[in-house]
Structure formats: C-alpha cells, structure tokens
Amino acid sequence: MSSDKKHPKESDIIKLLEGDSSRRSFIKNLSIAAAAGSAALTTGCIPSLAEASTEEMKLRWQEFFKKHYRLMTQEEKDAAVGRLERLAKLENNLDLQMGSEPPIDGVLYGYGFNITRCTGFMECVTACIKENNLDRKVHTQYIRIFEMEPGKLDPSTGDGQYYHEVPVDNKFYMGTQCFHCENAPCTKACPTKATWKEPDGIVVVDYDWCIGCRYCQAACPYYGRRFNWGKPEIPKDEINTKQHYLGNRIRPMGKMEKCTFCIQRTRKGRLPACVEACPTGARVFGNLLDPDSEIRYVLKHKKVFRMKEELETDPKFWYFID
Amino acid sequence: MRALHEKSLKTFFIDGIRWNLQGTPAFQIFRLVLLGCMGLGIYAYSFQARYGLSVTGMNDIVSWGFYISNFTFLVGVAAAAVMLILPAYVFHDPDFHRVVIIGEGVAVGALIMCLTFILVDLGGPLQAWHLIPGIGLFNFPSSILAWDVVVLNGYLLLNALVPAYILYCHYMGRKADERKYRPFVFLSIFWAFSIHMVTAFLYQGLPARPFWNNPLMGPRFLASAFAAGPALITLILAIIHSSTTYKIDRSVFSKLRIIIVISAIINLIMLFSEIFKEFYFTTHHSISAVYLFFGLDGYDALVPWIWTSVCANVLATLVLALNPGKNNPKVLLPACGLLFIAIWMEKGIGLIVPGLIPSPLGEVVDYLPTWVELCVTLGILALGITVVTWLVRVALIIEQNENPLG
C-alpha cells in the first residue's frame, strides 16, 4: 500500500505500458473525454460531469464522425442504425425498428396521378404526415394538392391552400410532391453529395451528411424539398417507429428532407402511404421494369404527361386522364 | 529606427498586433464600437445555434435571404481589387502601386465576410467539414457551390499571401523579389474574374429559377462589382488620406472615377436590357421581375426597395460621369457612397429574394429579415471592417517607416 502511494505516477505509467487491456482502457477513457467535448459542441450545452461518461455522449461522438452513407459497408450501416436506435431509446425512451434495406434488384419505381379521379380530400397528405414523422409544429407536408380551374394545367395558376368542402363543381385537383427526377437538378447542386438517386430511382438525402446550405432547394423546379428550420416536433405517441435510415427517421434540425416514395415501406414491397390512403384510387405506384405492373398499364393505355417537361428532368411521376 | 532590433517573422506578427493596439483615443473608440457590434452578432447567432434557422425570416419558399444576399454582393467587392491589381502590377502604374495594398486588404476583409456569411447561413455549420476534400465528400466538378468553395478560399489565399510576402520583405528592409510573386499576381487577376463568375453561375445555372437563369447574370455581376468595389475603395482611400499621414495622390481618385463610371454605365445598359426582356413581352418567366418592380397579388415589399436602388444608381452614375464639381471630393465621395449602396440594394436583396418568389408552384410570400439576421449581419460587417483596418494599418506603417524604397 505505502509503496504504491509513494510512486503513484510510476505505477500508472507502467500500467499504461503494460498489456493490451490497460492500453485499451486508456484509449477508451480518452474517447469518453473526447465524447464529452464533442457532445458539448453538438448539443450546444455543457454536459455535467456525471453525463460526460455516459453511453449517450459516446454514441453521439461516433455519430458525428461517421462516414457518408454510401461509403459505409453493410456492417457500418448496421452499426450506425444500431447507434441511432440506441440513442432514441436513451434520449426519448423510444423503441425504434430502423432499417437500411438496400434497393431491390430489377426494381425502378414510378408513380402515376389520375387528375380525373382526384377529388381533393387530402387523405394522402394526412397519411404522409403520419407515416413520415413530419414536423407538426410548422405543418411540413411533402404532398401539395392544388385546386385548379379547367383549361389550366400549371399548378401555379391553382389554389394550393383551400379550406372548403370538396369536390367543387367544375374544378379539378392536381397533387404534387417530389417527382424523383431521372436527371435531378438537386443532386447535381449538392456540394457534399448528401443527396443522390438510388438505383431504384428514389432520390434520397443522407440527413447526417447534409450541411444545410439549401442549394438543392433553390435548384428544385417542383418545390419538392423541405428544410428543418427548427427542431421537428412530433407528439411522442404519434411517432412512427418503423423507420429507414434514408427515410422517415426523425430529421435533425437544419437538414433537408423530402418525399422518399416511403422508402421504409416500398423496399419491403409495400405501397407508399399516400397511395394506400387515397380513397378514390387516383394514385398508382409500381415497378417500371415490370411489364405487368399497374404503372406500366397506365403509361401504355392512358393519356399521360409530365410537369415542366421542357426542363428535361424526366420525373418518374406522370399525370394521366381516364 | 527599429533597425537595431532583430527582425524575424515572429516580430513581424508581434509588431502587427502592437501597432494595432496603439492609436489615438478616437481610434480606440472605433475599435470598441466594432468589438461591440461583433459581440451583438455573436449574441444574435447564439439564438440561431439553439433554435436553428427558424429564428430567421427565411422559409421553404424564400430559402435564401439576407445572409446570401450580402455574400453575393461582397464577392463582387472582393473581386474588385483586381481593378487596382491590374494597373499596378501589369501596367506598372506608379499611382496605383502605392494603393494596391489597400485594395488587397479590402479584398481579404470582403472574402472573410463572404465565408462567414456562408457559415452562418448553413443549417448544420458543425457539418461544414464534410466540404473539406479528402475528409469529406466534395461534389466537384458537378456542384457550382463546390466550385465556389474552391475559388473563394483560393482567392483569399492569393490575396493574403502576396501582400504579406511583399510587406514582410519591406519590413525586413529588403526589396520584394518580383519573380517570386509575379506569377501569383497574374493568377489572382484571372482568379478575381472567376470568383464573381462562379458566384453568378451559382444562380445562373438553375433552370428552376427563370429570374436567375439568364446569360447576362455573370457579365452584369462583373460590371456592378467593378463599379461598387472601386467606389468603396475610393471612400476608404479618402478616409486614409484625411485621417493618416499616408497621403494619396489626386490622380488615383480621378483614375478610380473613370473605372467606376465605365463599369457603372455598362451595368446600367445591362440593367436596361434585362428590364426590356422581362417587360416588352411578359411571360410566366417574368413573374419574379413583375413581383420585384411592381408587386404581385398584393405582395410588394420589394417595390420601394428596387426603385430606390434604381434611382440612386442612375443618379450616382450621372454625377460620377458628368463630374459637376470638377473632381471636387465633396461631390464625388457622396456619389461613390450612393452608388455603393444602390448596388448593394440591387445585387443583394434585389437579386436573391425575387429569384425565389414566386415559388416554382406559384406561391407568393414577402420576406423580411428578423432582428437575428440583422444583428448577425452587423456583426459580420464589423468583423470585416476590423480585418480591413488591421491589415491596412500594418501595411501603411510598414510602407511609410520601413520601406527601403521610401
């Protein structure tokens, strides 16, 4: 005992140099200290000493320095998803099931919107808000429905904020959302490659890689992107816990988000929430590479057109009439 | 007098700081005011750090506002240093050789303001390291914003290092070796055009925004920058001339006036061309211009703003061109100030905000900056002015006292 006290420093150094285990614990201690520092940065508040060594701070540190999603191996993706699930548990006591399902081979998604069928009920909007954990405080909505006069086909001539009983005689309804362009101006504009087109045609955002410059929003000709100006607020009991890394997980403040064709559903073979919710069947979704799909039937047999065709962005979203 | 001391790179920096901490009481008060403004800016930014950009007046429709407007304008001010560099280093104009260092100081200050404006505009400033090539992922050459990051930082380096080298040589009591810095001067001349063209292309390249998607954007940026930048430099030179012992020759002012007048007239011709295109036959691509100049659906926040700007622009250009006071500084200096403000109004808010209104789906909203945006902007301007005064003070003391060439 007494000899230990006489040379505390020496024994510490010997401990550090000896054996793998103590070195590992030294590095661990270092990383915890670093985590405390970085957590102060990322959360904008100074953590108390007790919190400094918690698992939460360590996870946040690892999250802060993780790679771009597309550069991660499947193991790293799984680890990132695991961290996000664990953080949700620690921070809000939420049990998430987050996935990172890759695109399905031989699938290219396409969307059809029947302007003769849509009557403007906005069931799709409500379903989208719930499914995708959209901010309730500022009423973020990916889908917009415009009430249009006959003879016009440009939503900028319509009314996108009607609050009356629908349908109205001699009016028609046109829904807009992200059109998942083949030649997308937003992905070209992004300075950090934080948004890109997946092989199944879905344009996604890596929310953790986005720096929030909003250049993609300026570049989008369809008003398809939404920004988290503040921290999104969703009542805890309304949070959809079935999430996807690139989809409906709750977005951080100051990041871009958008419609992902409900990537958390469609990559498991389900339909997007808006298509499922539509009471009139105006919305059609399917695999463009499958000749027997409904979307292919629509493209073949209906009169279809795309919005702002002159920009040559080639949206995978078609309007059609019966 | 300081030749007795051992001089080195270390004393160069220490003397620089020392000279800047000394000064008359009036100068100290000026310093304190700037420091106070920066403090206010940091205080205002603390709200943005806590609550995000929701404390600004921006929204999903007007997604760029006061910050990006000031950034765009100040890129022009930074680029305008080339109007002094070109005659000084390439044509060896002796008048401009004496003031070129001040122009470069202004460019450095303007660039630091530009980069700070970009940083405060980011939703995730802590993720800005994603832009660093090698560590992050840089969308180069596809994204024009990535190009802008490269050209702005490159121009900052060029404009800081070349004068620093020359000043350091003079400080050490020797002549700067022209062979060493001349290639970089030529590079910086091309680079100056590139920073403003690239920034113009940032907007010009967006087919989603017809108001910006206009081939005249780049050239007009240059013309307005080469009017506003030298106008600002004229004002700064006038302040230096009247408040320090560093006297500036009258011929510098008259040469600058000619540069400003030519650029301002070209700028007005292009403005007229743009207005003609938008209003001779108005299409749905002209709606932003209609909103800007006449208002739309009852939204007309920018109408008095742009008309004030256009009137001030025409008036200042006429005064500078006709020169009624025969080079009387009491006439020319206010005209330079007016021209600078007019172009700030037009190239800032008058360019960025109407490009986003109406939205691609036709919504019209008015944008007004909040106090947070105004205070952060004030803080950044104070930062820029501080940088310029620090650099210019060091440069003037070295050039006057330590320059072996007199």
Would you write up a description of this structure?
The complex is a heterodimer of chains A (322) and B (406). With 322 residues, chain A is of the alpha+beta class. Chain A is 34% helix and 15% strand. Chain A is globular and about 60 Å long. Chain A starts with a helix and ends with a strand. Mean pLDDT of chain A is 87; it is low at 1-10 and 13-27. Chain B has 406 residues and is mainly α. Chain B has helices spanning 9-21, 25-51, 66-79, 82-90, 94-121, 144-171, 178-204, 217-243, 250-280, 287-294, 303-322, 329-347, 349-356, 371-402. In chain B, α4 (82-90) runs antiparallel to α7 (178-204) and α12 (329-347) runs parallel beside α13. Chain B is globular and about 70 Å long. The two termini of chain B are 14 Å apart. Chains A and B meet through α8, α9 and β7 of A and α2 and α6 of B.
Distance between the termini of chain B: 14 Å
Order of helices and strands of chain B: HHHHHHHHHHHHHH
Instruction: Report the structural category of chain B.
Output: mainly alpha
Number of helices of chain B: 14
Q: What is the count of DSSP helices of chain A, taking H or I runs of 4+ residues?
A: 12
List keywords for this structure.
heterodimer, A: 322 residues, alpha+beta, four-stranded mixed beta sheet, two-stranded parallel sheet, 12 helices, 15% strand, globular, B: 406 residues, mainly alpha
Structural topology:
The complex is a heterodimer of chains A (322) and B (406).
Chain A: H1 2-6, H2 8-17, H3 20-43, H4 49-52, H5 55-64, H6 74-92, E1 97-99, E2 109-114, H7 123-131, E3 144-148, E4 172-176, H8 185-189, E5 195-197, E6 203-205, H9 215-219, E7 225-227, E8 242-244, E9 256-258, H10 263-266, H11 273-277, E10 283-287, H12 294-301, E11 303-305, E12 317-321
Parallel strand pairs in A: 1-8, 2-12
Antiparallel strand pairs in A: 2-10, 3-4, 5-6, 7-9, 11-12
Chain B: H1 9-21, H2 25-51, H3 66-79, H4 82-90, H5 94-121, H6 144-171, H7 178-204, H8 217-243, H9 250-280, H10 287-294, H11 303-322, H12 329-347, H13 349-356, H14 371-402
Helix pairs in contact in B: 1-14, 2-14, 3-5, 3-7, 3-8, 3-13, 4-5, 4-7, 5-6, 5-14, 6-7, 7-8, 8-9, 8-12, 9-11, 10-11, 10-13, 11-12, 12-13
